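hey can u check if this looks right to u? its 287 residues, i copy pasted from the old doc so theres a chance i mangled smth
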Amino acid sequence: MTEERFGQPLAAGEAARFFTLPAADAVECLVARFHTHAYVPHTHDDYVIGAITAGRELFHIGRAAGSAAPGDLVLIDPGVVHDGAPGPGGYVYRMTYPSPAVMAEVAGEISGRAPAPPRFAVNKVHDPALAARLAGLHAAAEAGADRMALDQEMLGVMAQVIARHAENGAGVAAALARSPGREAAALARARAYLDAHFAEAVDLATLAAVSGLPRSRLIRALRRECGLTPHALLVDRRVKAARALLAAGTAPAEAALACGFCDQSHLNRAFKARIGVTPGFYRRARA
């Protein structure tokens, strides 16, 4: 059976899905499995940053020919001509297309300097840990993960991409290596906001604005103060609220929706990870 995506047919066994990271300025994403499809030479207005998760992709980037396999990151600047074709047996990849504005904002926010788009002189690097982290972010976005979790991880992944592999990433790398300061008043504002809005779809940009700190500084300062990222703190607060509702007899499905979880299974995972038992068991034990 032939599938069709983007107006063009794909061979049997091939698949492609396009989606966006809504919490990160609608960064476009593509996950695909190809064993015959080959791209003609083309360019993008955005960066091409992605990871091969299976097989091998063959490519030309600019005038250089190469290939990428699991553990490799592909890093292509806007406007650079490239193509892509499957190696023997095909390949699977997860690609993101952040705009120059998004990447410049990440670099400027973390380094504390004027925003400047990163430049990637080397278009393929072997970085298994970062490739796996990027693929994990991509898969979480595809599955519809929590907004703050995606925003937080998008910032962290792209910061590491710039710090480790951009030819002008030294300022970002230096900033990430510095210890965060103690920001008691700012963190108190952030925690108070989460206490008041935990049942809502809180995003990282709003929480940073409330605290008065840049997003990356807020993440690092919170982790230093209490050992939790903003997203982990939000989930922790939701679990506490759900625990109180369950103890009062509220059904798990109702408690999940009342506390900002997307569904009962999401509550189940978060609750058991922190309390040790499922919400249903806890409710029955308190009855």
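The longest strand covers residues 82-97.
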